[in-house]
Design goal:
By secondary structure, this protein is α+β, with helices and mostly antiparallel strands. The chain contains 15 helices and 46 strands. Helices cover 17% and strands 25% of the residues. Strand 20 (396-399), helix 5 and strand 21 (435-441) form a beta-alpha-beta unit. It binds 2-acetamido-2-deoxy-beta-D-glucopyranose (NAG) (6 copies). One 2-acetamido-2-deoxy-beta-D-glucopyranose is lined by residues 90, 212, 224, 319-322, 324. One 2-acetamido-2-deoxy-beta-D-glucopyranose binds at residues 281, 284, 286, 288. Belongs to the glycosyl hydrolase 31 family.
Length: 939
């Protein structure tokens, strides 16, 4: 089997492996075994004589036409944004007029009434709307526009239930009568209804739909906001795109199983963005073009966030002077966050909408190895062993769906991945402090009912409990994924979560996994082949009729029609919603269910779940990986903005497929990527680069764990763009080839082939920010506001420590649990004033509710380093040494808690200005943080 097999999906379809059409399923073995997917062996249109129980009803088994027989001729759709003849709905439609304003304690309500004849541009106009404006908290303003009457127009609209996906959107309460929020809502009725959101303190207009008609139809909602020229917008995931979205970009938001299409929609959907405006003078409504701003001048920046809480397919069209938001259904359900800094916006969004990211177990910060194509348990174990032979730390080994019997979830291939042999291997793995994370695909194989030997208990139990998605006529929806014909869990059916927990639990008894990797969760279904038709399909809306499969407005979906490479939009959920309404939520709901299942299966421990498709708030349950990328330098570069965007969305646990999933990886690429992402041992140079990168990463585990905890408790970010930490520097607005790990570590990877140097900016230098080279610990001589070329030969990744930081480290062990037993050390990098701060969070590293925790505060001020802690968590590991960077001259004496330290334990380098204090272990033998201490020096 070829390692890149997973990428044959498209070709399989192109070869004519149609979906379960009107054919009777007569064989499943033809499915996965020959490398094609779901090839029907017979194409009889007669119902099979065998009756089976489907959802408890005896049903003559015949695969229902889930996709039309002519699906391979799916008419090509011309995306609206590329269609010169497309109706401009904002010009054609009449807009609305507001009336009957009713003030209340926290805002107001009004009626919006259509201001002319319905235009029915891309659906049926909704004539009567309600507007609700609520100042909901000190930092959040909500603007909601929804149909006034749901029944009379027969318009079905889905809106995310409160608390379902995100935090409950709190109904504002009367206590918020005088909101301190720095936002003001205002509206105009001339020529038609439009609104603006203004920053009160500066007068800046942040969002302005006045002068552009609102379009509100059952299958199309659109509004336009004017923007200052050269605005800086971020977020709106998930895309492979620069961090700064730019002013000429359409963000399509529709979960898609698609490899690495630059700029197109991919796995996850995050309709949240924030804007960052830089100006030296406030109150100026035409904001300064940040990229053209004079870098030496003083600037002040303000950021604000916008979240459109809507699960439908969207498009956000960014033009130089305006942004158009369009969705294929639902309401205008907007939340504005007032910032004023980027970090504030992200925190406000996470704490009040998406939810704070999960606290992950300590081990998840270690290095994970995952590859398609391990032949059996022995080969999997030999990979683990080889890592150890090469002394490259390996924390977790993952397996792809090739462990399964014909790719059927929870059903190991007993010839290659038997439960007995697995138990032995996983026992050895666990004993060495390592972990195992296997894949679980989203679709469930549906066996051939005519062939008893094909029985598949996971399906049978699910079918008996009525947990699978249906066709509009109530029959089971059958698609096709890796195992062949498949069904799909309907997370809205009553028994689905308990069935899922039970399946994961049964399998855990056979395969002792530590976490679960969820794949294909967009949710993906194959079978729609390429088109042979040349003329484009245009759907003319019929008033009152919803066309879910070919909605009149065509989004620029990477896969074409909404049904392509996905479950059809007309599939029906148990709560009556169509897949059309909630396609974007499948990935989130399966993560939620898996998280809940793991809390039941491995009680008390933080579930480790990683998913491919995510939605706003998925970070509460899971991490994310960048999907099946290719071995290309540009994708390594793209993984940085992707990771930074995930930070914005509240998913700090993000990793790309290091070295690329598909295609031949080159030695140089792999070496560079290992350092960035840090089978590392295939080339000796890569092994060496990996060891170096891992050494840094593992040394910093306590720092990273603390960052994770801060993200989990406060909504701060794990990886950070330079501009978030240095918001007033307009030069940084688009920097996404360098990034910060937390506030204190700057990483500048080499992202192009054949390079031995890299250009870096050193932010804040003009304001006195010092940067220390990680390797020689010396202050780096950087020029303010200019790119500085730094050496970066293969095998070296430039890492700098920000002056003013104190980093907790532990000597790296082979695993994270070994590292946790190694002596502590601190690196204090002094700022211009000779000060620095830092912190450490400690707990058992795995419990959902640890019974003891400890927080350590670290401060350097006035030639002394103070450590003070609160909390009862016991860590017996002593402090070995303290390294202080940027000490101007040799100290004449040092004391620890007033006791003079022998000069033999002090080393000062007059060139590097590094002061190193060793031999502290005796004095801290109860544990580095058992007691508060002060290390002071004098000159
Ligand atoms: C559902 O959509 C599919 C195309 O994706 C179509 O073939 C089928 O006829 C539709 N079913 C109904 C009942 O409309
Ligand atoms: C909106 O209109 C309805 C009747 O059409 C009326 O009952 C209601 O009070 C109005 N609401 C507001 C806020 O004016
Ligand atoms: C709503 O649907 C029902 C049933 O299909 C139909 O009888 C009624 O006329 C529809 N009402 C409107 C306003 O379209
Ligand atoms: C905007 O993007 C499109 C598509 O990438 C490109 O063809 C066009 O030239 C761009 N326009 C500007 C003004 O950059
Ligand atoms: C606002 O900024 C623009 C561009 O920087 C400048 O031309 C204009 O004079 C400023 N207006 C005010 C009122 O400061
Ligand atoms: C937005 O601005 C672009 C030019 O930058 C213009 O072509 C487009 O018509 C504007 N959109 C709307 C809805 O006004």
């Amino acid at each position: 089997m070829v390692p890149s097999f997973k990428h044959l999906a498209w070709s399989a379809c192109a070869f004519g492996a149609a979906c379960a059409q009107t054919s009777t399923i007569t064989s499943s073995s033809g499915g996965a075994a020959d490398g094609l997917v779901g090839t029907p062996v017979s194409t009889s249109t007669q119902p099979a004589s065998n009756a089976v129980l489907i959802d408890g009803t005896s049903t003559s088994f015949r695969v229902i036409p889930t996709l039309p027989p002519s699906i391979d001729e799916t008419p090509p759709l011309l995306p609206n944004i590329l269609d010169p003849e497309a109706i401009d709905a904002h010009a054609a439609c009449p807009g609305y007029l507001a009336s009957g304003i009713e003030k209340n304690a926290f805002g107001f309500k009004a009626n919006l009434t259509i201001a002319g004849d319905a235009c029915n541009a891309y659906g049926t106009d909704v004539e009567d709307l309600s507007l609700a404006v609520e100042y909901q908290s000190g930092h959040r303003l909500a603007v909601k526009i929804s149909p006034r009457y749901l029944d009379s127009t027969n318009i079905t609209r889905y809106q995310i239930a409160p608390g379902h996906v995100d935090q409950p959107i709190l109904e504002a309460n009367a206590e918020h009568t005088v909101p301190s929020i720095d936002l003001q809502f205002t509206y105009s009725n001339s020529p038609s209804f439009g609104f603006a959101v203004i920053r009160k303190s500066t007068g800046d207009i942040l969002f302005d739909t006045r002068g552009q008609r609102l379009v509100f139809e059952d299958q199309f909602v659109s509004f336009v906001t004017e923007m200052p020229e050269a605005y800086n917008a971020y977020g709106l995931g998930e895309h492979i795109h620069a961090l700064r979205l730019g002013n000429n970009f359409t963000a399509t938001i529709y979960a898609a199983d698609a490899g690495n299409p630059t700029d197109n929609n991919i796995y996850g959907t995050h309709p949240f963005c924030w804007y960052y405006l830089v100006d030296q003078q406030t109150g100026n409504l035409t904001l300064v073009n940040a990229s053209a701003a004079d870098p030496t001048a003083e600037h002040v920046s303000y950021s604000h966030g916008v979240y459109l809480r809507n699960s439908h397919a969207h498009e956000v069209l960014m033009s130089p002077k305006n942004i158009t938001w369009r969705t294929l259904g639902g309401n205008v359900d907007l939340y504005f966050y007032d910032g004023p800094t980027a970090s504030d916006v992200v925190r406000q969004y996470q704490t009040s909408a998406a939810g704070l990211p999960a606290m992950h177990q300590y081990f998840t910060l270690g290095f994970h190895q995952c590859r398609w194509g391990y032949a059996n348990w022995s080969e999997t174990e030999s990979v683990v062993d080889t890592y150890r032979d090469f002394n490259i730390p390996l924390e977790t080994i993952w397996n792809d769906i090739d462990i399964y019997n014909q790719y059927r979830d929870f059903d190991n291939d007993q010839l290659r991945f038997s439960y007995d042999q697995g138990k032995e291997f996983l026992g050895r793995l666990k004993a060495r402090g390592q972990h195992y994370v296997p894949i679980v695909d989203s679709a469930i194989y549906i066996p051939n009912p005519l062939n008893e030997s094909d029985a598949y208990a996971t399906y049978t139990r699910g079918n008996d409990s009525g947990v699978f998605l249906k066709n509009p006529d109530g029959t089971q929806y059958i698609g096709s994924v890796w195992p062949g014909y498949t069904v799909f869990p309907d997370w809205r059916a009553e028994n689905t979560s308990s069935w899922w927990t039970d399946e994961l639990k049964r399998w855990h008894e056979l395969v002792d996994y530590s976490g679960i990797w969820i794949d294909m969760s967009e949710v993906s279904s194959f079978c729609v082949g390429p088109s042979t038709t040349t003329s484009y399909l245009r759907t003319t809306p019929t008033p009152g009729v919803r066309n879910e499969v070919y909605p009149p407005y065509v989004i620029n979906n990477v896969n074409g029609a909404l049904a392509v490479h996905a479950v059809s939009p007309n599939a029906t959920h148990a709560d009556g919603t169509s897949e059309y309404d909630i396609h974007n939520l499948f990935g989130h709901e399966i993560l939620n269910a898996t998280y809940n299942a793991l809390t039941a299966i491995i009680p008390g421990k933080r579930p480790f779940v990683v998913g491919r498709s995510t939605f706003a708030g998925s970070g509460k349950f899971a991490g994310h990986w960048g999907g099946d990328n290719k071995s290309k330098f540009w994708l390594m570069a793209a993984s940085i903005p992707q990771a930074l965007s995930m930070s914005i969305f509240g998913i700090p646990m993000f990793g790309p497929d290091v070295c690329g999933f598909d295609g031949q990886s080159s030695e140089e690429l792999c070496s560079r990527w290992m350092q960035l992402g840090a089978e590392a041992y295939v080339w000796e140079s890569v092994a060496e680069a990996s060891r170096k990168a891992m050494h840094i990463r593992y040394s910093l585990l306590p720092y990273m764990y603390t960052l994770l905890y801060q993200a989990h408790t406060t909504g701060s970010t794990f990886l950070r763009a330079l501009s978030w930490e240095f918001p007033n520097d307009p030069q940084l607005v688009a920097v996404d080839r360098q990034f910060l790990l937390g506030p204190s570590i700057m990483i500048t990877p080499v992202l192009v082939p054949g390079a031995s140097t890299v250009d870096a900016v050193f932010p804040g230098v003009s304001k006195g920010q010092i940067w220390y080279d990680w390797y020689n610990q010396t202050a780096f001589n950087a020029t303010a506001g200019k790119n500085t070329t730094i050496a970066a030969p293969l095998g070296h990744i430039p890492v700098f420590i920000r002056g003013g930081s104190i980093l907790p480290t532990q000597a790296p062990g082979y695993t994270t649990s070994e590292s946790r037993k190694n002596p502590w050390a601190l690196i204090a990098a002094l700022d211009m004033e000779g000060s620095a701060t830092g912190s450490i969070y400690l707990d058992d590293g795995e419990s959902i509710s640890p019974n003891a925790t400890k927080s350590v505060d670290l401060t350097v001020t006035g030639n002394a380093l103070y450590a003070s802690s609160i909390g009862t968590y016991e860590d017996k590991v002593p402090l070995a040494n303290v390294t202080i960077l940027g000490v101007p001259q040799i100290p004449s004496g040092l004391t620890l808690n007033g006791e003079t330290l022998p000069m033999s334990s002090v080393d000062y380098n007059t060139t590097s200005k590094v002061l190193r204090v060793t031999g502290l272990a005796n004095a801290t033998s109860d544990g580095a943080w058992a007691n508060d201490w002060a290390l002071a020096w004098s000159y």
